[in-house]
């Protein structure tokens, strides 16, 4: 057959003109398939071999956050020391993410309260202390000035003053434990008005004092002996304090004795006042009193 004029135009080669299995990878030259020849969405994940996409195949900045599944980046995928402080957002580290013992004094600024450096001076009222508020685990600050108030109130928890609400007849030649049967004040209810004893219940140093006013009567004459004593636990073996003797005046005017002492007490000790007179006719009046307080 001969043709005159233009050659007939060949129809484009379509997929239906190619038998199944005719074009294999071995028939395709390297670089023959370019991106422009691949239909949209023709390459699916099922067509990609496992591990076919390597880091070398990924362009710089090609992977964006929108392309990463939630929780796809795990700790195992992050290299050691890959995350440094410049990648932390403010407030991203909370106490729940700190392991026990992770924060040491070496990690704290020297301007913070670390106890690493001595104050190097006397404590001033404005100095601050840290304390557990009510032992509830809440750490708060307090000024040194408050410690003085607290110490004063602690000592003030142990103070009393008692007196006679009426006259009291005292026998002669007898060490009589005096009962001051009424109170002016008694912090902590440590004084017993029924037996005249003060039992603070807390070891410490106490100051105690007493004054008795009595009418000696005509029985008191020259040579009469009278004693006002402070005793601890009713002991007369060296624990008496303020023993006083007096020569009687022989008249009926009231006479007053005062004594005081600083005494060390254990938590089970008590103190009380005793009176002794060599003659009868002594009458303690309502002007008599007994008081004390804790020093330290």
What does this structure look like?
The protein is rod-shaped, with a radius of gyration of 50 Å. The chain is built from one helix and 14 strands. It is 4% helix and 25% strand. The termini are far apart. Among the domains are: 51 residues, no CATH class; 136 residues, Jelly Rolls (Sandwich), CATH 2.60.120. It has 296 residues and is mostly beta strands. About 4% of the residues have low confidence.
State the main characteristics.
single chain, 296 residues, mainly beta, Jelly Rolls, 3-stranded antiparallel beta sheet, 1 helix, 14 strands, 4% helix, 25% strand, rod-shaped
Q: Which residue ranges are poorly predicted, with pLDDT under 50 across at least 5 consecutive positions?
A: 242-252
What's the CATH class of the domain at 159-294, please?
Mainly Beta
User: Largest sheet, if any?
Assistant: 7 strands, antiparallel
Q: Give the number of helices.
A: 1
Into which percent range does the helicity of residues fall?
Answer: under 10%
Proportion of beta-strand residues:
25-35%
- Sketch the topology as an H/E string, one letter per element: EEHEEEEEEEEEEEE
Please give the CATH architecture of the domain at 159-294. Answer: Sandwich
């Amino acid at each position: 057959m001969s043709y005159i004029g233009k050659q007939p135009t060949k129809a484009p080669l379509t997929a239906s003109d190619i038998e199944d299995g005719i074009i294999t990878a071995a028939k395709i030259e390297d670089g023959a398939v370019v991106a422009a020849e691949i239909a949209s969405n023709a390459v699916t994940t099922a067509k990609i071999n496992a591990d076919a996409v390597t880091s070398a195949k990924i362009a710089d900045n090609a992977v964006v956050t929108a392309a990463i599944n939630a929780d796809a980046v795990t700790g195992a995928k992050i290299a050691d020391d890959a995350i440094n402080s410049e990648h932390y957002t403010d407030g991203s580290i909370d106490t729940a993410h700190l392991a026990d013992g992770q924060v040491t004094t070496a990690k704290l600024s020297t301007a913070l309260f670390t106890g690493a450096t001595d104050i190097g001076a006397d404590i001033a009222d404005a100095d601050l202390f840290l304390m557990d508020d009510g032992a509830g685990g809440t750490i708060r600050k307090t000024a040194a000035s408050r410690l003085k108030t607290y110490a004063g109130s602690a000592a003030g928890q142990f103070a009393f003053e008692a007196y006679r609400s009426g006259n009291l007849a005292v026998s002669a030649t007898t060490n009589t434990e005096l009962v001051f049967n009424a109170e002016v004040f008694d912090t902590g209810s440590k004084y017993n008005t029924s037996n005249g004893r003060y039992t603070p219940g807390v070891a410490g140093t106490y100051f105690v004092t007493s004054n008795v006013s009595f009418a000696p009567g005509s029985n008191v004459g020259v040579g009469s002996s009278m004693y006002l004593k402070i005793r601890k636990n009713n002991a007369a073996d060296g624990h008496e304090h303020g023993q006083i003797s007096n020569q009687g005046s022989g008249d009926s005017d009231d006479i007053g004795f005062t004594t005081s002492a600083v005494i060390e007490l254990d938590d089970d000790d008590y103190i009380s006042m005793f009176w002794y007179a060599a003659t009868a006719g002594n009458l303690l009046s309502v002007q008599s009193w007994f008081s004390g307080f804790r020093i330290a």
